[in-house]
Amino acid sequence: MHGLPLKWVASLADYADPARTFLAGDSAGGNIAYHTAVRASQYGSVGVDIEGMVIVQPYFWGPERLRSEEASNDDPRLNPPDEEIASLTCQRVLVAVVEKDTLRERGCRLLNRFHDYYARTGGGEATLVESGGEDHGFHLYSPLRATSRRLMSSFAHFINQPPAPELDDVLHWHE
């Protein structure tokens, strides 16, 4: 079944540019967007070039416990291996996190892994957007709130900006 959603996107080429496709998802959907990009990179994108991803408060985990976690899990679907990140063909990633989310640290760590990969290979953009004082999924429950509107605006800006000619001008990361 891999590739079916991307085949549908490719069929819309009369209405959109299949060379500028972005995948996006919230929470577990962020994990799904990431793994869809991995599959497209590994198996071919069926007429769609994935330029980037917007991963919002993504659900990822890992083998070692972080301060905010009570359990651990080293499943590669929840803790992507470095070689999987290196297999991605998209060159732009935005990870959005929120201050009061137990998944915040994992999102920041994932962003740093993208940053490290792009720094080693000399190409790509890794951007972190953090919403202070908010809980997981806040923008879905209160879409008209000022912080929700700022978050959505940051997604639109990220997607609509042309790819930068030089990495140093666009690389952002969170320590």
Automatic annotation (TrEMBL):
So where does this one cross the membrane?
none
Q: Name one GO molecular function term.
A: hydrolase activity
Pfam entry (one): Abhydrolase_3
Species of origin reads Panicum miliaceum (Proso millet)
Residue ranges occupied by any Alpha/beta hydrolase fold-3 domain in the UniProt entry: 6-67, 69-139
Domain of life, source organism: Eukaryota
What's the protein called, per UniProt?
Carboxylesterase 13
Gene3D superfamilies (alphabetical): alpha/beta hydrolase
InterPro entries assigned:
AB_hydrolase_3 (IPR013094), AB_hydrolase_fold (IPR029058), Carboxylest/Gibb_receptor (IPR050466)
PANTHER family named in the record: ARYLACETAMIDE DEACETYLASE (PTHR23024), OS09G0435700 PROTEIN (PTHR23024:SF563)
